[in-house]
Design goal:
291 residues, alpha+beta, Rossmann fold, six-stranded antiparallel beta sheet
């Protein structure tokens, strides 16, 4: 099995975890590669096996069987942007906090390695949101796993986002911004703005306003076969758009359209995993918080 490890700003306390992962995979005859930044970070501190190599050209992803994302959910989102249309399976080992996407605790990594090598897992296809714009944005990385967001800049006054579904007028949102979330992203920014939770395999987008001026405006769930387009107005000449953690400034002349990406993100799920278990654990459902 060909394994790629990816991490961002790995602290020294997690270096041992990475070395243990490398040893476990190599012991079972797997070839291990690291992304460039992770490779340089580990090599700087020494002790890296000479058989471990750095991922070169992006085309080498075609030969990778599984990518291990080491970090929090932000690292896993970055991993998805790295993989793109290659659809390489991703396993998230959580060294962060919440861990809705990176679901394997670092203490469980040894069992996870065995299950992975013995093919005791399934792949869960997660839909991606795709941005089409009249000017190039995000250096060609025009897709995201969680959400697309339009937002006012800095402390400027609220903006107006005229929104259309398949060309039909939906609403004009007077708000600080607007979120279009995938089912995966429904547990993130959209949730914090009052959006609903959606099962990961649902075929929907959620449109959620950020701090709307009209309090009777609520999130709406639409089919992910829809094309969602926008016209933005505001006192400021500049606005912000984002895909997951990547942001870019635009002006009102930029045309924006959101649709479902043709490729998906494939997340490794072990047979004892349940999305609903994760919800209960991460959101403290069922706990009496009065004590």
């Amino acid at each position: 099995m060909n394994i790629l490890l990816h991490g961002i700003n790995i602290s020294s306390q997690f270096q041992t975890c990475i070395h243990q992962l490398i040893q476990a995979f190599e012991k079972n005859g797997s070839k291990v590669q690291l992304t460039k930044n992770l490779f340089n970070s580990i090599q700087k501190r020494g002790g890296l096996s000479p058989s471990v190599t750095v991922l070169g050209a992006k085309e080498e992803l075609a030969d990778i069987d599984v990518v291990i994302s080491i970090g929090g959910d932000g690292t896993l989102l970055d991993t998805i942007s790295l993989i793109g249309a290659y659809e390489t399976p991703v396993l998230g080992i959580n060294t962060g906090r919440m861990g809705f996407l990176a679901t394997i605790a670092k203490e469980e990594k040894d069992v996870a390695v065995i299950d992975l090598l013995e093919n005791r897992y399934s792949l869960e296809d997660r839909s991606l949101v795709k941005l089409e714009s009249s000017v190039p944005l995000f250096k060609g990385l025009n897709f995201g796993l969680n959400e697309f967001t339009i937002h006012k800049r800095d402390t400027s006054s609220m903006i107006t986002v005229h929104t259309y579904i398949d060309g039909d007028y939906l609403n004009s949102y007077w708000a600080d911004g607007l979120i279009v979330s995938t089912p995966t992203g429904s547990t993130g920014y959209s949730l914090s703005c009052g959006g609903p939770l959606i099962s990961p395999l649902a075929k929907n987008f959620v449109i959620t306003p950020v701090s709307p001026h009209n309090l009777n405006v609520r999130p709406i769930v639409v089919s992910d076969d829809s094309e969602i387009s926008f016209k933005i107005e505001g006192r400021s000449e500049k606005f912000l758009v984002s895909l997951d953690s990547r942001s870019a400034p635009i002006d009102a002349s930029v045309e924006l359209k959101i649709k479902k990406e043709i490729f998906v993100a494939k997340l490794v799920k072990f047979h004892n995993y349940s999305f609903f278990d994760t919800l209960r654990q991460k959101l403290n459902w069922g706990y009496d918080m009065r004590n």
